[in-house]
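Think of the structure tokens as a kind of shorthand, similar to the way a musician reads notation: each symbol stands for something richer, in this case the local conformation of the backbone. In the example below we present two proteins back to back. Begin with the first one, reading the sequence and then the tokens, and try to describe in your own words what changes along the chain.
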Amino acid sequence: MAALRFRAENSHRIPTTTRGWYFYHKSKHYYVMYAAMTEGLKMGFMFPPVILSLLYFERTVDLLRGRQDFLSTVIGSLSTAGLFSLKNHFNLPTTMHMARLGLVGGLAFGFIQDLHALGRGKRLDYVEYLKGIKGKIRGDAAMG
């Protein structure tokens, strides 16, 4: 976008010589780099509060529920998406899109955390529950 803005702002004085084109592109590249660094800093200051709120909500839900699993991550990410949408005054379709992104991201990140915990030998309640159901189904099938 910065390159297009530079082109629009300087369209009234297009260079006519090779040297002029060289300095035009050199100036444009400096302009684009400056715009990219400015935008990068803005985004860099915006993301840490969002990530901290996600971690805060996830930890709070973990403490309230008394266990750590993917559901806490999903609730934390949905809460963060809602707060982010509220802060930025998004309309309903954009808010719903943010909620879907929060749900998908929370599920993915939560299951990755759970896989890591399983790899370390931690027992997860819902995995044990599913194993119990599977055992009951096998037991019922063997009896019938």
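Once you have a description of the first chain, move to the second and do the same.
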Amino acid sequence: MASRLLLRQFKSIDRASTANHSQPSRRAISTYGYTQAKSLIYSKHGAIPDVLSLHTHSISPPHSTLLTLRTLAAPHNPADINQIQGTYPTTPDFITSLGTPNPVAVPGNEGCFEVLSAGSAAKSVKRGDWVIPRATGLGTWRTHLQIDESKVVRVEKEGLKSTQVATVSVNPVTAWRMLKDFVQLKAGDWFIQNGANSGVGRAAIQLGKIWGLRNIAIVRARPGEEGERLKGELEALGATRVVTDAQVAEKDFKDQVKEWTSGGGEKVPLGLNCVGGDAAMAMAKVLSASGHLVTYGAMSKSPMRVGASMLIFKDLRFNGFWVSKWADANPEEKLKTVEEVLQLIRQGDLKDVPMVEVPWNWDTKKEALVEAVQNTLEGYRKGKGIFIFEDT
């Protein structure tokens, strides 16, 4: 009944400056205080165009410790896509609270939200505050949601854009923890990584520069000027050397690394791998004895064939890192890392990754949203896809 009573009324919300990313402040409410919302949902796993739909529903006024939130920005991560496809180790909860005939899940694990209203017992946040999910699986691809205050964490928004806050929990935290938790790196040490143009790769390059580390950044080969442009871009962020995957596969690459590292006198104790397959093994060959290859992705979907000599004679260590699992086991350390990353962003020491902003207004069609999500699967993208919620 509430949805039938909905009237399109728009209220202005006093919104603090979001640096260069101002957010419109319109929302639909009813005469009974219900908030009208739209969510991308799926009731079964499958291909993106086949299973995603756009659902309209209403949210009652919050009570007790509940919060009504308006989404400001929500990125598209590979894990989000894999969850929809049913190929990821975890999935969001399938719920019926959105008024659908069958249980549905809302995709999206990262996002930045503004508190529109809070129940009388909510103490940790107030109207106008920005919050992020405390854990994964919240379901962020929606205009509004209602959640208990314990499920989100307040972020000091001064000096930040909503896009920066929305993308802080996965890529920068992954890079930070991998550089800190496996090898005791000191200023002047080297690390090598593939997928260096990714969100994690760019964060690792910049964090390495801040901490005095040197690095070898591996990217996929690109034709002509495009390859040179990317090389210059990563060098400007702090990459010591930028090479292509084709160069790494050449027989003399190990000799090249030896030359860069003062004849091998400087160690390369850490490798960060998001590709897998033979590309990962080519990178492992240049690691120093007792080095660590940390795998956090497998874009090639190919197995890594570890040679016995790497284990016997070089004593290499092969580790995996899954930021979601780490965060669940270390919630306080995660929040500390998030705040440290945000402080670097405020100071201008950590630059934004390239983003492809996808406007989501109240009248935005499902087809436009689904196409934007589908584009996440494309090979060479101009940047990370991210929903920007405007007139909702």
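Compare your description with these statements about the second chain. Residues 1-26 have pLDDT under 50 and may be disordered.
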